[in-house]
Amino acid sequence: MAQNRSSSSGPGPSQRRLRVGELIRRTLSEVLNRAEVHDPDLNRHSITVGEVSLSNDLKVATCYVMPLGGGDAQAAVAALARNKGELRHHIGKAMTLKYTPDLRFRIDETFDRLDETRRLFADERVQRDIAARDEEDDSAS
């Protein structure tokens, strides 16, 4: 009996999805960096592409983006969404996929979560709990 190749053997994305996502991320970053899209609203933003995740069938790419310097993220995402056809065209030219994925843009909140995590670890109550746990571990050894 043939195996179902579309299902992943592990909990995370397949190597192909990761590889294609990284290629799309690089290509999109280069296109945005060189201002190859003819939209002054989009070219006004300096946008970083943090991650691109793909659906199992590689037909939908979700691009996590953030304007550098803390600009208006909603306006940047709206400008990207408005120009997704042209961006998709540039990606299709640069890659050899059977289908160029549909692009969806989301605000990358990784940096905000990282800042919140740092803030939590800097809290004196958390530091006290960590120190107490370290003392327990040392006395148990």
- Number of beta strands: 3
Order of helices and strands: HHEEHHEHH
Q: What multimeric state do the chains show?
A: single chain
State the CATH superfamily name of the largest domain.
K homology (KH) domain
CATH fold type of the largest domain: GMP Synthetase, Chain A, domain 3
Q: What is the radius of gyration?
A: 21 Å
Distance between the ends: 53 Å
What amount of the residues lies in strands? Answer: 15-25%
Which spans of ≥5 residues are poorly predicted at pLDDT below 50? 1-8
Number of helices: 6
Strand count, sense and barrel status of the largest sheet are:
3 strands, mixed
The level of helicity is 40-55%
Briefly, what CATH class of the largest domain?
Answer: Alpha Beta
How many individual domains? 2
Mean pLDDT: 83
Structural class: alpha+beta
The outline comes out as elongated
In spatial order, strands of the major sheet run 1-2-3
Keywords:
2 domains; elongated; 6 helices; 16% strand; disordered N terminus; 3-stranded mixed sheet; 141 residues; GMP Synthetase, Chain A, domain 3; alpha+beta; 3 strands
Summarize the helices and strands and which ones pair or pack:
Layout (H helix, E strand, L loop, with lengths): L14 H19 L6 H4 L3 E8 L5 E8 L5 H10 L1 H11 L7 E6 L2 H13 L1 H17 L1
Helix pairs in contact: 1-4
